[in-house]
Design a protein that fits this description.
Largest sheet: 7 strands, mixed
CATH superfamily of the largest domain: Formyl transferase, N-terminal domain
Mean pLDDT: 95
Number of domains: 2
Structural class: alpha/beta
Number of strands: 15
Number of helices: 8
Strand order of the largest sheet: 5-2-1-6-7-8-9
Order of helices and strands: EHEEEHEHEHEHEEHHEEEEEEH
Shape: elongated
CATH architecture of the largest domain: 3-Layer(aba) Sandwich
């Protein structure tokens, strides 16, 4: 059977396992397409995206177009005569002109069980919404946003300890494994693409730093889920006396209280318990505006927070 010539398109860490597994399984990756280098850190040093660094380590050629709609870039893709595109979190939507190039189409890996959580932040939103399960979908791309026909899916249970970081890493590895199964199935014609039920679609919009502010009026269980979804980025935060506090971990309690949401309620001496819209929330890991990330016991040694104090 003829070996497929693949053009791989991706940018962040989520894309890396898929690129690696293609190389490990002997697929011909003719080119890697990724976003341009961006300034990072305090020194604003130009830094290559994770996919570029991985591709160079694997000895693969890389291009970094400012826009994939550039006619010269599209001509370059045609000239390579690829059989298949593999697209994993590239960060740009492929126009139909590009999608029409490979005869086997463009396979995308998406971090949810489509049609739920279409969009750029499916992992965070599954956690924020306190879902019990999520997963990976491979699909044939069309010119919509995550609307293409489904090829394969794989599910995973969301554990009480999962954050967007742990779930991201697990789904990235699952996506790589599912990609190989998908390509094998496409080559053997064992997979029949299934249209999505668009009536069941939900959207997972991009998150901004300001989205991390905790709403204490929500139930404690949902705030706990919100914190896990926001960790490590954009980060869950609150204010006390106009000072910003970042919250990394918390635990919901069923304790009833008559205190207003956001008010510190009495608990054990090494505990910081906050009233919410329903129940209370015990903060477990916290970081002050200019301090280190600390467990709550160590944080309280240097910060006296009396019952009745208010978080907003």
């Amino acid at each position: 059977m003829k070996q497929l010539k693949i053009i791989f398109m991706g940018t962040p860490d989520f894309s890396v396992p898929a690129l690696k597994i293609l190389s490990q399984n002997g697929y011909e990756v003719a080119l890697v397409v990724t976003q341009p280098d961006r300034p990072r850190g305090r020194g604003c040093k130009l830094t290559p995206p994770p996919v570029k660094a991985t591709a160079l380590d694997l000895g693969l050629p890389v291009v970094q177009p400012q826009t994939i709609r550039d006619p010269l870039f599209i001509d370059q893709m045609r000239a390579l005569e690829p059989d298949l595109f593999v697209v994993v979190a590239l960060g740009q939507i492929l126009p139909q002109e590009l999608l029409d190039i490979p005869p086997s189409g463009a396979v995308n890996i998406h971090g949810s069980l489509l049609p739920r959580y279409r969009g750029p932040a499916p992992i965070q939103w599954a956690l924020i919404n306190n879902e019990r399960e999520t997963g990976i979908t491979t699909m044939l791309m069309d010119n919509g946003l995550d609307t293409g026909d489904i090829l394969m899916t794989a599910g995973t249970r969301i554990t009480p300890d999962d954050t967007s970081s742990t779930l991201h890493d697990r789904l990235a590895d699952m996506g790589a494994d599912l990609l190989i199964k998908t390509i094998t199935g496409l080559k053997s014609h064992a997979i029949v693409p299934q249209p999505q039920d668009h009536a069941l679609a939900t959207y997972a919009p991009l998150l901004k730093k300001s989205d991390g502010r905790i709403d204490w009026n929500k139930p404690a269980q949902l705030i706990e889920a919100f914190i896990r979804g926001m960790t490590p980025w954009p980060g869950a935060f609150t204010f006390r006396e106009n000072k910003r506090l970042k919250i990394f971990k918390a635990l919901a309690n069923t304790q009833k209280t008559t205190q207003a949401a956001g008010t510190v309620v009495r608990g054990f001496s090494d505990e910081l318990r906050i009233a919410t819209g329903r129940g209370t929330l015990s903060l477990c890991e916290i970081q002050g505006a200019s301090g280190k990330r600390l467990d709550i016991k160590n944080y309280l040694r240097g910060h006296n927070i009396e019952p009745g104090s208010v978080f907003s």
